Structure formats: C-alpha cells, structure tokens
Amino acid sequence: MRPPHQPQEGFTLVELLIGVVINGLIMSAIASALFVGLRTTTDARRNLGQSNGEQLIAYYFTGDVQSACNPALSEPACARTPNPSTTSGSACGTTAQFAMDTFSSPTASAPEVTVGYGLQSGVLTRFTCAYGATSTSSSVTLAEKISSVAVTYPLSGTCAGRYQLVVIATGSTEGIGTPAYTFTLCAERRSG
Amino acid sequence: MSRRRSETMASRPQHQDGSALVMALVMVFVVGLIASAAVSYASTSLSASNSAFVPARAKQNDVDSAIRTAVEYIKRDAAAGGSLGMDVGGGCPSTTFAYPGLSGPVNVAVCPQEDSFVHSGWFRSVLLTLGTDPSEGIVLSHNGDTNVGGSIFSNSILSLGGPTNLKVTGGPVWAWGNCTRPGNVTITNPTSAVQCNASASFGGVRPKVALDPGDPTLGHTADWQPASTPATMTPPAIPPCAANKATLSPGVYSDPAPLSALTTTCNTVTLGVGVYFLNFPSTNTPWSISKTVTAACDATGQGAQLVFANQSKLSLTGVLNISCGRKATAKGPLISLYGLKSALGTLPAQTGCIITVGGCSIIDPGANSGELNIADEIYLPKNKLSGTINVGGASKVATALILRTLNLNINPNICVTCAAIGNDTNAPIAGNVVFTASLNGTPWADSDVVYDPTTFAPTIHTWVKRF
C-alpha cells in the first residue's frame, strides 16, 4: 500500500515575493505615519507652549500697565519715568527687562507695588515686590524659549500712544521646525 | 502539475492565510490611535486655554467699559459725585451705576471722597462755628443782607438779628440747635431750606462737616498747622515810619507796644511776606491798629500769616488787609489769621481769648468798627469774633471763617451783593470719586478719578486691578 498523500505546506517563491513586497509597503507606511505623527506632536507642543505663553503675557502685561501710575500727575506721586520703563534696569533687587510701579488701592498717595519682567536663560518671569523693596514677594513664569522682550512707547503704528510690548520666541529645528515667532501687544495706562 | 498544485493549495491550513495583512492592519490602527490622541491632546489644551482666557478678557473689557461709562455719567451729573455723603458722615457708595456687560451685569459703586466738588476748596463749610454751648454759635446782626458763598454749619444756634437776611449760594445751612428768624435765610444754587435742630437729622452724631478741619480723625492735621515755626524768639526790629510808610518783618513779636505805636501813627504799614508770631503776655494790651496794615502776595501766591499765641489779641479800629495767607503744606489751605492750639517749640499755645462760654473777642473792632479784608482763611477754632466789622470795596471778611463762636455785624461798605464770607462764584473744586466695578458680585477693578473743577474733565489718577 502506498502511504497516504501528505499535503505540501509552505509558500511558493512568487507568493513569498508578493508577501514581502506588500509587507514592505505596509511597514513603510506605518513607519512614515509614526514619523510624521511624532514630528507633528513636537511642533504642536511647541506651538501650544508659545500660545500659552502669549496668553499669559497678555493677561498680566495688560493689567499691569493699566494699573501703572502716571508720572505726569503731581498726585499720586509717581517717580518712575517713564512708567513702565522702556529700558532694562534693576527692580525689586533683580534685573528686569522692564518694570513699572502700580497701585493696590485706589486712593493711595504713592505707588505700592512694583512689577518687573525678567528674562533669564530664555525664561520670561513676572515678579512683584512692595514699592521700594529690594527683594521679590512673588514670581511667576510666563513663557519659555524667549529670545527678547522690549517695551516701547511708539507715536505711530498700531500701538501709537500706548505702550507696546514685542516678544520674540526662539525658532527651532526640532520636528518639522518653526522660525522665530514674534508677537506684539498694546496696553494703555489708565491714568493717562 | 496543475493537479498537484491544486492539491497543495487545498490542503494549506486556513489559519495561516493573510497573517501579515492582519498585523499591518493592527499596526495601522495603533498608529492611528496614537496620532488621534496627540491631536486630541493638542486640541483639548488649546480649547481649555482659550476657554479660560477668552472669558477673562471679555470680563475685563466689560469692567473697563463699565468704569469708563460711570466716569462719564458722573461728569454729566456732578451732584452724584459730590462730597455731601462723606462730609456729613454718610455711607459710601453714594450711588451705584449698572452696566449690562456681555459677560454679565457690572455694578459700579460710586464713592465720592471727602472734599469732592466742595464749593470752597478745603472748606466744607465756609462759615463754621465749633462751640456747642447754647449761648454760642452764629449770631449775625446786620440790618440788611449778609451774603455767604458756601455751606454754613453751626454746632449750636443760628440767630439772625438786625434783621439780617442771610443769603447763601452754593451750600446748605445747618444749625445743630435752634434757629432764630430762620425765615430770613435764603439758599440758592441749589435751592434748599435751612436745617435747624440738625442734631436730629444726624442722629445726634456730629458729622465730619461739623468738626474742626484740623481734627486728627479727618486726616488733614499737617495741612492745618502754622505755615512755619519760629527760627528765633528774638523779635525783629520795629522799622521807623518814613513818609508815613513802614514795612514789618516776619518773626516773633512779644511786645505789642512798639507795634501799636507804629500802626496807630504810620498811615500804611506793610507786612513783609512770612509768618508773624504774636506772643503777647496779656489780653489787656492788644496790638492796636488804627491805621492801615497791609500784606501782599509774593510770586507763589502766598503772603502773611498772623499766628495768635499766648494771650495775643488785636484791637482793630483801622484796616487790616491781607491779600494772601500762607499754607503749611502744598495741599493745605491758605490761612491768614491762625489761632495756635498747642505750643510750637518754645512758643506757647493760645491762652488769651480762649473762651469756654463768653470771653473776649480775639479781634476787638471797638466802637469805631474796624475794617477786615482777608482774602483767604481765618482759622481761630478756640476764639470768638464779635462786634461790627466793615468790609471794604469788593473785599470780604474771609474766604472761610472757622471760629468757636461768632457774634458779628458784617457791614459791607460798597459791595452789597458779593459774598462777605466764602466765594462769589459757585464753581466747585475738583471732584474726587472712587469707582469700584464688580462683576457678578466680585470686585474687578477700582479707579480714583479726579474731575476738573470747571470743565469736569475726568482724569484717572489710579487704576487698580483686582483680577
């Protein structure tokens, strides 16, 4: 008797080739998708960070400038000129890119709180102290990866007659890559 | 061959079919999930950030707009920003202003500060008598009109003999006690009626307007000090009278005799600008003025101040003209005649014509009725002024008259319509109002706004964020 017929297993060469080609296409698509996804996440996070930083800066800077005292008024007294300052200097015992003297009560006869914005190692920080004090009483980080901040008082342009803050966020080559990002805020001192 | 192949394919186990495709699909699915999660994360973060920031910005805009609108509202209705509430001890705010913001209703509390829109500058009352005994108060006895520009407050009675027609513009008239002949009081701009027995109106508690403005509780003590302190107790030399003129120098005068000798013989004696401390030892020997004593103003608008210390007193049958007083602080009132309430270094406090009830008049016009023309203020909070006082030309007794008690016949020589006390015009001084904006009951911002006295143009002095 002949032994029973054993079915032959395995792929033919053609089948294997087709399988390898299909598998390669799929794997490359998956790898590409992963690669794109990871790069997009990095950029999205950086953009999100910039967006949050811009919002925080807008939130604090606008309110601080509104509360700043007016050196043109004889009462309440306001010694800082200009206020906010447009050059870097010392405030609250530390270096500030710009600073301003503000009130914490409406009937005060002199500023009560000094607010400073410091930039160190790309981190923009807002700090406060009692007027005339040489140490900070509070500090909050507003944004990271900032290359420069500057306050001016332009007489023309979008912010004419108001205080203009220009913030430049550093560019990056990570992920897809983004160029340096600049945003501008206008704020008006309420006391004229 | 074909049969063998078909047999081979037919016998291949089914579970191995398409295994690579399934794996690929699983991997694609997993990658899709990761990508979706990342995008979802970014979207959620942005949405959360915006959902926190955008409403906050909207609220800030609403509060900003509400205060701006309230500021304009007060500009158009200065009476709502007046000082009355604060000065008579009323509560604050005096009124509220509602603004329908996009993020919710904003209520702005309007709180006028002391001295806001006060008719006569620092003087909440241009005629104020501090004495509380029923025999004290304001007694006017001119037969005719006595014009006052500004508020009047008596901590006791108001008596109008003569009969006196008391014509008041620009301020209410209060008498803590009774009024005699109240029908002769006319109050215009705004029109009101004299308030006699005002103690009932104020619940028996004296309002700020009834207090000595130098009272420490009012917070203006420094403004109500003498304009300077004596540099030396050595009296200046009395100058000779040359061509009927002489000029006195400021300083401490302890002997009234040489002063009287000069001002009763020399036709015109000028007071050089500065403070004259009168340190006389007895009320029986006052400084007698029967000629003309005049003080002018310097370039800063200040002139002379007579400080009554010890037992100093004036006997005025001549003319005393002081065009400008002096002030102790930059914001303080200009005071021409000052009663020293407490010692100033070695200069003793006033002990002479300080009255409890009765007592002498700090200025004795005598039977000849001296003429008193003081452009600024008379601040003699412990003294009485009585007699008949003439007022020359368009001059006045004083811009403000703060005494313990007053019993006066003010006799205007020429000008019968201008104010003998206070200001002729009704222009108020700068208004000072604090606005507090609350959104849904939570304070968001305060602002202290000062209004120009004539144009009412607002100037924001402070802006305080609460967010």
Overview of the molecule:
The complex is a heterodimer of chains A (192) and B (467). Helices cover 29% and strands 28% of the residues of chain A. Chain A contains one helix and nine strands. Chain A has a four-stranded antiparallel β-sheet, with helices on one face. In chain A, a hairpin with a 2-residue loop joins strand 4 (113-120) and strand 5 (123-130). The termini of chain A are far apart. By secondary structure, chain B is an alpha/beta fold. In chain B, 18% of the residues lie in helices and 33% in strands. Chain B has five helices and 29 strands. Chain B has helices at 2-10, 19-76, 84-87, 198-201, 256-263, and strands spanning 95-101, 104-112, 127-129, 137-140, 144-149, 152-154, 157-160, 164-169, 173-175, 179-180, 185-188, 245-248, 251-253, 268-271, 274-278, 287-289, 292-295, 304-308, 314-316, 319-322, 335-339, 363-364, 371-374, 377-391, 400-412, 421-422, 431-439, 442-451, 458-465. In chain B, a hairpin with a 2-residue loop joins strand 1 and strand 2. Chain B is elongated and about 130 Å long. The mean pLDDT of chain B is 83. The A-B interface holds A 5, 7-9, 19, 22-23, 26-27, 29-30, 33-34, 37, 40-41, 44-45, 48, 51-52, 55, 58-59, 62-64, 66-67, 69-70, 73, 75-76, 102-108, 189-192 and B 7-8, 10-13, 20-21, 24, 27-28, 31-32, 34-35, 38-39, 42, 45-46, 49, 53, 56-57, 60, 113, 331, 434-436, 446-448, 459-465, 467.
Sheet/helix structural class of chain B: alpha/beta
Question: Whole-number radius of gyration of chain A?
Answer: 30 Å
Beta-sheet strand percentage of chain B? 25-35%
Which of globular, elongated, flat, extended, rod-shaped describes the shape of chain B?
Answer: elongated
Distance between the termini of chain A: 113 Å
> Which assembly state applies to the chains in this document?
heterodimer
Mean of residue pLDDT values of chain A: 87
Number of DSSP strand runs of chain B: 29
The secondary structure category of chain A is alpha+beta
Largest interface summary: A-B, 45 and 41 residues
